[in-house]
Specification:
mainly alpha, 2 domains, 11 helices, 62% helix, 0% strand
Length: 278
């Protein structure tokens, strides 16, 4: 697409994953993430404001996949900051607070029912209407965000995509918080602490998820990859559903070895076996 754009988002994901690993409470963590992500958003907006895409396919990909992946994170952490900064004391109060927030989260992005269904179905037939930049006068003014709309850096629906993605992320977060309360401070049904975290990169885990799916090792392959990513993300405390398809595209365009992570797993296990044999 461009020598700036793709490397920018690849670097963004790497820095984002590293920053996520820094230990601090939810409020402080959210503040740090918002500061980092908004700085990145300013950079990409400055670039796209004067950039002309080579074709509609590239422009649609940017405004349907790339930019919403960034904006959704900002929205998500702003929701978290608001929820956690108003969290009442006591188990019952916290649970009620999270449930109320969860009920609101399930309604996010559903104001435009037609587009909500379009997005959920991964449809493409109206992409040129939704994700190509147009003059302000050509945009239907049915959304509050259009009060501040800049047609040079936005399309009519890229913000709605970000809103829907952030809602999915927020729902997962709130469900996890409620589960922690119900399971006595983060224990599972076996009474063991739930403290598993993915130590690799996001692209490594996506590579593994697609391998499991296409090898038909989970439900005989009869499962949606995004749904699978959501469940695995919960286990390893990492958000995947907002970028699973885009990360997979990054894997596909690798110029040398496409299955880097899977190959490294084989090498690591073989090395361990050889060490034990010697």
């Amino acid at each position: 697409m461009n020598t700036f754009c793709i490397p920018f988002f690849q670097e963004l994901e790497r820095d984002f994953e590293l920053l996520k690993c820094t230990y601090c409470n939810s409020i402080e963590h959210s503040q740090k993430m918002i500061f980092f992500l908004e700085k990145k958003l300013k950079q990409i907006n400055k670039w796209v404001k004067t950039f002309c895409f080579a074709n509609e396919k590239d422009e649609i990909y940017f405004f349907k996949e790339l930019k919403p992946s960034l904006v959704s994170k900002i929205l998500y952490y702003k929701y978290i900051l608001k929820i956690e900064s108003t969290l009442p004391p006591g188990k019952k109060g916290k649970r009620k607070h999270y449930i109320k927030a969860l009920n609101k989260a399930t309604q996010l992005g559903k104001e435009n029912r037609e587009f909500y269904e379009y997005f959920r179905c991964r449809a493409t037939y109206s992409d040129t209407n939704y994700f190509i930049r147009r003059p302000y006068k050509d945009i239907i003014r049915d959304h509050s965000m259009l009060l501040f709309f800049d047609s040079k850096i936005s399309t009519s629906h890229d913000y709605q995509v970000a809103s829907l993605i952030s809602a999915d992320m927020l729902i997962n977060y709130l469900e996890r918080k409620i589960d922690e309360i119900d399971n006595k401070n983060g224990t599972n049904n076996y009474g063991q602490p739930v403290n598993y975290s993915w130590s690799g990169t996001k692209i490594d885990l996506v590579e593994l998820i697609y391998a499991l799916k296409h090898a038909k090792l989970i439900n005989n392959g009869n499962t949606d990859v995004k749904e699978l990513a959501t469940h695995i993300g919960k286990i390893f405390n990492i958000e995947l559903e907002d970028s699973i398809y885009r990360v997979y595209q990054d894997i596909k365009i690798r110029k040398t070895v496409r299955t880097k992570f899977l190959n490294s797993l084989v090498e690591s296990l073989n090395q361990k076996l050889m060490e034990e044999d010697s």
